[in-house]
Amino acid sequence: MTELFTRRKFLANTGASAGAGLLLGASGVKAAMMAVGGRDSSGTPLKSLAERKGLLYGTAATEHKLTDQAYADVVIRECDLMVPELALKWEALRPSPSTYDFSGADWTLHFAQQHKMQFRGHALVWHLALPKWFNSYATPQNAKELLQSHITTVVSRYAGKMESWDVINEALLPSDKRPDGLRIQPWLQLAGPDYIEMAFRAANAADPKALLVWNENWLEEDTVGAEHKRQYFLQNLKRLLSRSVPVHAIGLQSHLKADHPNIAGPQFQQFLSQVSGMGLKILVTELDVADDKLPNDFTTRDQAVANVYSQYLNTVLAQKAVVAVITWGLSNKYTWITNQNPRSDGAPVRPLPFDENMEPTAAYSAIAQALENAPSR
Question: Which of 103, 148, 205, 351 is 20 to 30 A distant from 266 in Cα terms?
Fold first, then answer.
């Protein structure tokens, strides 16, 4: 079994394009399995391919999904890192201002421990998934204490058991026109921009061993908007690090779109190098590839999705600061994209490395090959 990574090991760590064999037709499972380096890799789980390069491979899941034994079997075989998809968000954890419900997170932790997976927290501070009571309860007078208490309570409960935490999630929105690029949202309005520094310091005090991450979306494309966001991110990271705030890593959400091919270009690569140059680690935290705008034909769709995985991961994994790849789900049977980005023709979406029958898709081969291509950490 994969040796458990620690924050110390993370902090101590300082592609080629995919082959043409990624095409997967309706009966092309064998082709998918043979596509990695031209050989059958069906006996080599993704977590093992990752481990060989000093990486972690994992997924996000819920208790409900993991009670599907066929799905759980694939997760256990392929992953050495587990993220509770919903159970550690405020909405799930805080039924009232004075109570906590850890049942879902504890169940998922037990599953991870039982199968020798590492456990990762998502997310301590986010402007969405807040409980119904929040708007009427939180005020400028109590917001900082509310946030501090929440982080201390939650992080302390899992101290020593958590590989990393998404401390801050989606805090940037340049279109809000603030000079610091921060999103105008409840925590900023109630607690002020220092809520970010406060959150990292509180998390570090509660669990000094956990890797602390600022997780952001829409950083990957070669567009003006994405470049603005990357520059604001760098600006904020430099400011925090200059104040010795314990930010250890950034998270790239990487919810990619198969009909947006302009990803992982030179500006994005420069951004990753700059982050690495600050001494920070990088995690790919929520990877999937939406196919809702592609033709219905499975072969065409799977090829396009696989190509995006290949292009993106081969670029990102060339950076030795990257320490983990996490897909937001593992099977097309259970993906948020079904509801978030459904196809207009009603056909099922296919954004993940395994299909609804738990068979590998072309995306699986693209991920596997990218892991094999990656330099060792």
Answer: 351
pLDDT of residue 261: 80
pLDDT tens-place string over residues 216-246: 999 999 999 999 999 999 999 999 999 999 9
- What pLDDT is recorded for position 21? 31
Mean pLDDT of 343-353: 97
Amino acid at 106: D
CATH (domain of 66): 3.20.20.80
Question: Which residue in the block uniquely carries the two structure tokens 């998922």?
Answer: 108
- Interval 63-81: pLDDT, tens: 999 999 999 999 999 999 9
In a domain, 35, yes or no: no
Rounded CA gap, 110 and 119, in Å? 10
Task: Dump pLDDT digits (tens) for 146-161.
Answer: 999 999 999 999 999 9
Question: Are the beta carbons of 190 and 139 closer than 8 angstroms?
Answer: yes
Structural domains counted in the chain: 1
What CA–CA distances, in Å, run from 270 to 55, 84, 276? 21, 31, 10
Name the residue with higher pLDDT: 286 or 35: 286
Q: Is position 9 within any domain?
A: no
Write out the chain in H/E/C secondary structure: CCCCCCHHHHHHCCCCCCCHHHCCCCCCHHHHHHCCCCCCCCCCCHHHHHHHCCCEEEEEECHHHHCCHHHHHHHHHHCCEEEECCCCCHHHHCCECCECCCHHHHHHHHHHHHCCCEEEEEEEECCCCCCCCHHHHCCCCCHHHHHHHHHHHHHHHCCCCCCEEEEEECCECHHHCCCCCECCCHHHHHHCCCHHHHHHHHHHHHCCCCEEEEEECCCCECCHHHHHHHHHHHHHHHHHHHCCCCCCEEEECCEEECCCCCECCHHHHHHHHHHHHCCCEEEEEEEEEECCCCCCCHHHHHHHHHHHHHHHHHHHCCCCCEEEEEECCCECCCCCHHHHCCCCCCCCCCCCCECCCCCECHHHHHHHHHHHHCCCC
Contact 97, 137 (CB under 8 A): yes
Report yes or no on 288 lying in a domain.
yes
User: Could you list the residue range(s) of the whole structural domain that residue 242 is in?
Assistant: 48-373
